[in-house]
């Protein structure tokens, strides 16, 4: 058994391993087992990460600190099975070299001799239909391009594909701007795929969540904000008494520690530095009210919808007023009819211009 590690993370970090394109403890990797026989997502750690192959368990600790794309060989030793770092055979272009009887035989690997006899397509109609239910790389790239996602933008997304769009937008923003993962009802949609991107803390802070009802509601007054969020009141007190700026994230995560520090300060009449445990930023925190008010006032710079289980026209009609003037939007659906209906209604209501329906070129 051999395995190789790959990653889809392009975010930068102060960590030398991340800058050097090497794995680090806690990062997510994609393991290619036996040259495509099996693909497994794994999170690297010193002790807990293990890979099961057959009836053997292999520790993934040797993968930490290695370059992405490294090849490992499964071996057995006195202490049990383990993965050893091995060097892959050298490849030159599209050709492979093999030494036989003292002579080098070059095997060409290209499609110059391929004959199109309509038998190369092995996918059935059901297979193609199943593929259309998921976002492919060409579809995702098309959505990002049509929505004009770039840094210093505030992007509104309705992501019902596991967080793939949310992660792709956050990666394109590069820590400058916000992506708001919105949802209907009280339960947010899954964002499990975002964890696989290996985002830095700075990018994770830019991924926020908010129910659509909060975005559509009227802007709250300062009095309502103070009544609904007691944490904000604690923040104001700490700013006045300690003379220090405290971020909303620190207060929401450790409000009890803030109150305890204030009590100690009042008792001793001396300023004691607040000691807080710095936790790693978590993607998908609830959007603060001040940021929501800013979105309501200025509007989002673009909108991406991937919610095939909802009525496309109803959703678009409710969300378009949240965009700024001339803001682009893109909608994904695996069927043509919902998009055609939505496009027709948008034209009748004169709510948008420059509408088009595009199909990815990969079929």
UniProtKB/TrEMBL annotation:
InterPro entries from the UniProt entry: TRM6
Localization in the cell: Nucleus
Highest taxon listed in the record's lineage: Eukaryota
Gene Ontology BP term (one): tRNA methylation
Record's keyword terms, sorted: Nucleus, tRNA processing
GO CC, alphabetical: nucleus; tRNA (m1A) methyltransferase complex
Protein family: Belongs to the TRM6/GCD10 family.
PANTHER family: TRANSLATION INITIATION FACTOR EIF3-RELATED, TRNA (ADENINE(58)-N(1))-METHYLTRANSFERASE NON-CATALYTIC SUBUNIT TRM6
Protein's name according to its UniProt entry: tRNA (adenine(58)-N(1))-methyltransferase non-catalytic subunit TRM6
Organism field: Crotalaria pallida (Smooth rattlebox)
